[in-house]
Design brief:
single chain, 464 residues, alpha/beta, binds S-adenosyl-L-homocysteine, binds iron/sulfur cluster, binds FE3-S4 cluster
């Protein structure tokens, strides 16, 4: 395997120096930051690193952007509406800055890695103070220092794949459930997808460093670890390396292990065996299918067939009968016919997902699918997605009803937002349960008997 690209200790110590300098500049001000994160868990985890760096620089978190001295948008560009939302909100900050001229506006994330976007933003929105990409996240302290020092617009986006930066500070969103990024980038080039262009090629972290991060998290009381990567099955170059990592984490005693995302073409028998053998690997799996028709799957460059996918589902359910499966599905890929869409509907009926994220295809500049002709009117695509959502909603609800009467272990996340006075948390399979209880139980694993099912969540009562 090729050498792991790692940010040098010299570069990291330079960044620590810049953190110290910003800290000294800001010491008297008690400045506050507010981060808005779009996109996937990878971005959520990156924002935790940015927050960690900002806290070391003397900033503390503000829950509203109106109360912040620095507002940072961590953007996503996977679909056009994700971009539009981010951009619309950044533009709104111009108004906030009128009332608060010293407000610092920073924009980072995947959208900045898209060809020409950073340059366009710099030109069009002079009120943005700092623009950076995903490959130079670790250089944020130096870039912020330069922004504060020179009071000019700063923009740095690297074209080359990011090196892996180890040991950066992190401010975790939760004390009991944590993300660990195990690999960056993607080599798959699904024809619709922009991620490989903005996140670069696959790079895996060293297993020992992942395990020591997990150990530290466990020592601090974390109950659940979710391993992250665009395609975790190719961790360490593929083969059994990912399953091996799961075995080692399980042996370490991490109470709950989850991961995402898993590509069906690379899901190994070793991983299926791990589901059967490892008590701490939760019985849920996000296995995006994208489409149920072989021609569309081929045009998507997914490199598996419907039959192969269904075979994986069968093997997984043979190993773990009550495994909960979730999926991502794209409707209206260029040229998708009514019949091809019906194949997606029938696959959903056959698999019976606990939940599915459904998207209307969104052309992304630079991807190969963006060049394909797409005669299907948007109205037709909207009708298709409505049908799919209705079908999935019905199946999801049937699965929730099947949980009634079972006693499930729930990791308490805190007060229920929907039912004041109640607390909530997820079962091993990933269903959200609301039940009467004290918020002091947050972070504890509690047996809960399921008594009823709502539209998307369960209700239960604690078992003594
Ligand atoms: N690496 C992950 C997910 C990446 S993006 C995986 O392979 O599953 C998350 C989801 O966004 C994808 O699974 C896909 O369903 C959806 N998606 C990606 N590009 C899209 C596009 N151009 N239009 C619509 N949906 C898209
Ligand atoms: Fe995109 Fe496909 Fe890579 Fe997922 S596996 S990030 S959908 S290219
Ligand atoms: Fe979006 Fe980047 Fe994730 S494009 S989906 S935030 S990797």
């Amino acid at each position: 395997m090729s050498k792991r690209p790692i940010v040098t200790e010299q570069e990291l110590s330079e960044q620590r120096l810049h953190m110290q300098k910003v800290h000294d500049m800001k010491e008297a001000d008690a400045p506050k930051y507010h981060i808005v994160t779009y996109g996937c868990q990878m971005n959520v985890r990156d924002s935790e690193t940015i927050a960690g760096m900002l806290e070391q620089m003397g900033y503390s978190a503000a829950s509203r952007k109106e109360d912040a001295d620095l507002v940072l948008y961590n953007t996503c560009c996977v679909r056009e509406n994700a971009e539009n939302r981010a951009l619309g909100n950044v533009i709104w900050l111009k108004e906030l800055k009128k009332t608060k001229p010293e407000l610092l506006i920073c924009v980072g994330g995947c959208m900045m890695q898209e060809d020409g976007v950073a340059d366009r933003l710099i030109q069009a929105y002079p009120f943005i103070d700092l623009i950076f990409g995903t490959h130079n996240l670790h250089r944020f302290p130096q870039l912020l220092h330069r922004t504060l020092d020179q009071r000019t617009q700063v923009c740095e986006v690297l074209e080359t794949d990011g090196e892996i930066a180890e040991g950066l500070p992190v401010k975790r969103n939760s004390a009991h459930s944590a993300y660990i990024t195990i690999m960056y980038g993607c080599n798959n080039f699904c024809s619709y997808c922009i991620v490989p262009y903005v996140r670069g090629r696959e790079r895996s972290r060293d297993a020992e460093l992942i395990l020591s991060e997990a150990q530290q998290l466990m020592d601090s009381g974390v109950q659940e670890i979710t391993l992250l990567g665009q395609n975790v099955n190719s961790y360490g170059g593929g083969g059994a390396a990912f399953a091996e990592l799961l075995y080692r984490l399980d042996k370490m005693g991490v109470p709950r292990i989850r991961f995402m995302t898993s590509h069906p073409k690379d899901l190994s028998d070793e991983l299926i065996a791990a589901y059967k053998e490892l008590p701490r690997l939760m019985n849920s799996l996000h296995l995006p299918v994208q489409a149920g028709n072989d021609l569309i799957l081929d045009q998507m460059n997914r490199r598996y067939s419907r039959a192969h996918y269904l075979d994986l589902v069968r093997k997984l359910r043979d190993a773990v009968p009550d495994i909960g499966l979730t999926s991502d599905i794209i409707v209206g890929f260029p040229g998708e016919t009514k019949q091809e869409f019906e194949d997606t509907m029938s696959l959903v009926e056959q698999v019976r997902y606990d939940a599915a994220f459904t998207f209307i295809y969104s052309p992304r500049a630079g991807t190969s699918a963006a060049k394909m002709t797409d005669p299907t009117p948007m109205k037709e695509k909207s009708e298709r997605i409505e049908q799919l959502i209705a079908l999935q909603q019905q199946i999801g609800q049937e699965i929730l009803s099947e949980q009634i009467g079972l006693t499930q272990t729930v990791l308490v996340e805190g007060e229920s937002t929907r039912n004041p006075g109640a607390i909530c948390g997820k079962t091993e399979r990933g269903h959200m349960v609301n039940f009467p209880g004290n918020v002091d139980l947050t972070g504890k694993l509690i047996p809960v008997r399921i008594i009823s099912a709502g539209r998307n969540t369960l209700r239960g009562e604690m078992q003594s």
